[in-house]
Input
Amino acid sequence: MNHVDPSHLVELALGNTPRTAADTEALHHIAHCARCRDDLHTMTRVVEAARTAELIDLPTTPPARVWHRITRDLSGEPTAPERPRHTPDRRKRALLALLTLATAAAVTAAHCSRHRRARQQAAARLPGDPGCS
Output
């Protein structure tokens, strides 16, 4: 089964152009295909949300440095790459220390468990037991 192309679904959701024979065929498929119907429904909701959005719905204005960088990138001017700022992240260090501690605890617990089982098996053997070596 050939599903409706996503770009065609977008055009149907936008509803900007008069319906064509291809649109009619696509709508017929959508009527019988849950996947395409769901995709069209989702795209239609996005289009409606975008059309009803107001300035207050938009996020805050980005800082000036963002616009400067966009302008610089679009202008094609070669610039030196920015050096990443190396700031220690205490949360990352704490998480790494916690993971290291948890790993060490797990290894120690596994070692102790094996040692305890070996001692219990040795104690369970009697001197006259043929399994004892």
The first helix runs from residue 6 to 14. Helices lie at 6-14, 21-32, 34-52, 64-75, 90-124. The CA atoms of residues 67 and 73 lie 10 Å apart. Residues 92-124 form one domain.
